[in-house]
Amino acid sequence: MNYNADGKVRMRTLQLVVLLVFGVIAARLVYIQLIDSRYEELARGNTLRSEVLYPARGEVFDRNGEYLVQSRECYDLMVIYRELDRAGFDTVRFCQVTGITPQALRRELANARMRPRAPRMILNFMSKEEKLRFDECDFHGFHTVYRTVRQYPRKVGGNLLGYVSEVSPEQLKRYPSYQAGEYIGVSGVESAYEAELRGKKGVKISEVDTHGAIKGSYMQGRFDSLPVPGSSIVCTIDARLQLFAEELMAGKVGAAVAIEPATGEILMMVSSPTYDPDELVGRQRGNHYMELLYNKRQPLFNRAVSSPYPPGSTFKLVQGLIGMQEGVLTPSMRYSCHEGYQVGRLKMKCHAHSSPLDLYFAVATSCNAYFCYVFRNILENPKYGSVKRGFEVWKEYVESFGFGRKLGSDFLSEKSGYVPDREFYDNRYRRSWNALTVLSLSIGQGELGCTPLQMANLAAIIANRGYYYIPHIVRSVAGRDSMDRRFYERHYTKVEPRYFEPIVEGMWRSVHQEGGTSRGAFLPGLDVCGKTGTAQNPRGKDHSTFLSFAPKENPRIAISVYVENGGFGAATALPIASLIEEYYLTDTIRRPWLVDMVKEKTIYYPAYGK
User: Fold this and answer.
1) Which helix (H) or strand (E) segment is 110 a member of?
2) How far is the C-alpha of 437 from the C-alpha of 381, rounded, in Å?
3) Facing residues of 53 across strands?
4) What is the predicted pLDDT for the residue at 605?
5) Angle 403-340-317 from CA coordinates, rounded to 5°
6) Is the preceding omega at residue 575 within 30 degrees of 0, hence cis?
7) CATH architecture of 48-84+94-209+218-235
8) Over the stretch 77-113, which tens digit does the pLDDT of each residue have?
9) Pairing mode of beta strands 60-61, 233-235
């Protein structure tokens, strides 16, 4: 009997436990269905559509308020595969309305099928008119997303403004705030000021029915956010000057850079050949990009900030300044030149001019021999005990002018150029070298490599008598009180200001006195100062370069022009620089015949196959 009683107790206990469990489950079901709304919200979430609202990218103006880059309206056509009305989908009509080929449509729909709930872009760069025509057709499962696309009213400055492109897989890893299908600045201003130009995305959440039709805003837009447009930017560029310079450089390979010495603002920057920036916008962008990429003259390459050219005779100005600072040269010091400089078998040729000559005349006539003497005196200065130590001192001076290092401009593609160091020659000549071994440096040849930006900055340094502001392309950003402090700081060379006056005088005489190599740069009443350069080129005709600033006092523009295979500096680079100076300083051109001559000049480029 005791056993039966115990069994009944256990049975009752088990029944109570089961009833209790079922009671808890039943109570939970009642709570979920009648009281708790969370699961209802989750279920409703399956019918929500989140739409990214892309901001308008910031616009870019020139220094006078003229548009350089604008944003215009366009749309991306998106599909959500699970919402497609596949039975009633008229493929032929869809292709007619959108312009997409049947093959491309099938490919994109197949890709969209892999993630049927996620929006997939079918077509981009739809105009407003195309979008309105599409909306009239009411294709289920498709919707458009508003975007903006770049356009260039002046069609100038391809290399300096840069372009935007869809983010690559590598960039997505590097910048987690971007998503596939978004756009990012790739080069020039677009890249350097991406954070300011990009803006901030918004979001719109809508409720949709099972057919994909929008029923309304989710929770009255409580979770929506508006996009914040990118900041507008005012560039330092003068759009008219930029256009004129690009016209003069057309058909040539090289670069031209003009700087306002008092501020370091870049007034004009041309890398030639350039390209129409509108070519890298729209559905044909990929085809145009490949054409530019495989062009032997490399129009996508910004030579103005990245190409290390031998500076040629323009570099003699630096030698003269170092020589005076080091006490091995005075302006009145004379050296002879008998069409060159010769020591033993070594000879540095020079053109015919009167001899002997002082520093002023040596600058004006671009005498090779004179600066060979100066360079040797710097390196062989007895106070340093050895040529190698003298060379190290010389290199420190050169670097203080901004050579052999980046200037720190707002161009991310800026390169440092090249100034060889003592170790370079120790390795090359097994430590057995002297001043004559590196004599080609005296006239800006040898291993020296300087970017056109660095050479224009040298012109600004001389115009300022010993200092410069870091060259920069952007003057202001909307919403920002000031630009980076480094653009407002003076950077001094290691040469005292008083030593610049003889160099300035020599450059002035080069333009204004008989026998000067820069006579073609003369502009009445503007006191132009200039220095020609002809850089030897082992692969063809010599390169032509010219460095100048004007006026002599209170200069407003400093410029460097470099034309590959252009020959003598006075023949090709000088006329281009002179016309740019004239246009900027007088707002007119008094020598239209010279403009025609420059534009018509044809140059043979063996390195590029033409």
Assistant:
1) helix 102-114
2) 16
3) 202
4) 80
5) 25
6) no
7) Alpha-Beta Complex (3.90)
8) 888 888 887 767 888 888 888 888 889 888 988 888 8
9) parallel
Q: Which residues contact 138 (CB under 8 A, 6 or more apart)?
A: none
Per domain, the residue ranges of the chain are: 48-84+94-209+218-235, 239-292+301-608
Closest CA to 507 of 601, 418, 577: 577
Interatomic CA distance for residues 318 and 324, integer angstroms: 10
User: Three-class SS of residue 200?
Assistant: strand
Cβ atoms 309, 450 nearer than 8 A: yes
Q: Is 17 helix (H, G, I), strand (E, B) or coil?
A: helix
Between 24 and 396, where is the model more confident?
Answer: 396
Q: What residues contact 361, with CB distance under 8 A and at least 6 apart?
A: 353, 354, 367, 506, 509, 515
Among residues 502, 501, 523, 504, the alpha carbon closest in space to that of 512 is found at: 523
Q: What is the pLDDT of residues 283-306, one digit of tens each?
A: 888 888 899 899 898 999 999 999
Rounded distance, CA 578 to CA 573, Å?
9
Residues 465 and 324: their CA atoms lie apart, in Å, by 14
3-class SS string, 317-380? HHHHHHHHHCCCCCCCCCECCCCEEEECCEEEECCCCCCCECHHHHHHHCCHHHHHHHHHHHHC
Burial class (CB in 10 A: 0-12, 13-18, 19+), 487: buried
* Kind and range of the H or E run holding 510: helix 500-512
Amino acid 214: pLDDT: 65
- pLDDT tens per residue, range 224-252: 888 899 999 999 999 999 999 999 999 99
Which two structure tokens, joined as six digits, stand for 51?
Answer: 């739409």
Distance CA 446, CA 198 (A): 44
Give the model confidence (pLDDT) of 32-75 as tens digits. 666 666 555 545 545 777 778 889 899 999 999 999 999 888 88
On whether the CB atoms of residues 525 and 578 are closer than 8 A, the answer is: no
Q: Which residue is listed with tokens 């770049």?
A: 150
pTM of the entire predicted model: 0.86
SS3 category, 557: strand
Is residue 437 a contact partner of residue 429, using CB atoms and an 8 Å limit?
yes
Q: For residues 296 and 280, give the distance between their C-alpha atoms in angstroms, rounded to a whole number.
A: 18
Cβ pair 464, 491 in contact under 8 A: no
The CA distance from 405 to 454, in Å, is 9
Determine contact, residues 454/419, Cβ cutoff 8 Å.
Answer: no
Q: Which CATH number fits domain 239-292+301-608: 3.40.710.10, 3.30.750.24, 3.40.50.300, 3.40.220.10?
A: 3.40.710.10
Q: Which residues pair with 449 in a beta bridge?
A: 418
Q: If DSSP codes are grouped into helix, strand and coil, which group holds residue 175?
A: coil
Confirm if 392 and 422 have CB atoms less than 8 A apart: yes
Q: Side chain identity at 290, as an amino acid letter?
A: M
